[in-house]
Structure formats: structure tokens, C-alpha cells
């Protein structure tokens, strides 16, 4: 959604606001930074989403950020 609330709430600083070409227009959206994409499981581990919702999800009023957690 591009409001930046999830970016501000992420304790790991894993999000960034980026401009993407979506549906034929430039839109500002929150995205996981490139350096965290392959290790996002480890980056988000400190938020313990298996017991509660992480801060980034709680900060998103539009429900544009969600967490899929499947620890094994």
C-alpha cells in the first residue's frame, strides 16, 4: 500500500519502500530488501510469529502485509 507503517515497525529493518510498475502505473509499495529475501525465515525469527503476529503485520491497517509461518 505504500504507507510505510510496516517499514517503521520492523525491528530487523528488512522492509523498504520501493517504486514498482504495477497495473500500468508506478506505485510505492513496501517490499523485503533484496539482501533479506533468501534468508527471510531467519530475519523474522526474532519476532516469533508462531506465537503472535509480528509487528509489521500488526502495523498494516490495510492488511496488505501477512505472515505465512510453517516452522518444522
Structure described in brief:
With about 70 residues, the protein is α+β, with helices and mostly antiparallel strands. The chain has three helices and two strands.
How would you describe this structure in keywords?
72 residues, alpha+beta, Alpha-Beta Plaits, two-stranded antiparallel sheet, 3 helices, 22% strand
Tell me the domain tally: 1
Helix content: 10-25%
Query: What summary fits the major beta sheet?
Result: 2 strands, antiparallel
At the fold tier of CATH, the topology name is Alpha-Beta Plaits
Count of separate DSSP helical elements: 3
Structural class by helix and strand composition: alpha+beta
- If strands are numbered along the chain, what order do they take across the biggest sheet? 1-2
State the separation between the terminal residues, measured CA to CA.
31 Å
Poorly predicted runs of 5 or more residues: none
Strand content: 15-25%
Q: Report mean pLDDT, rounded to a whole number.
A: 85
Strand and helix order? HEEHH
Q: So what's the CATH class?
A: Alpha Beta
Oligomer: single chain
Q: Report Rg.
A: 13 Å
Instruction: Please give the number of β-strands.
Output: 2
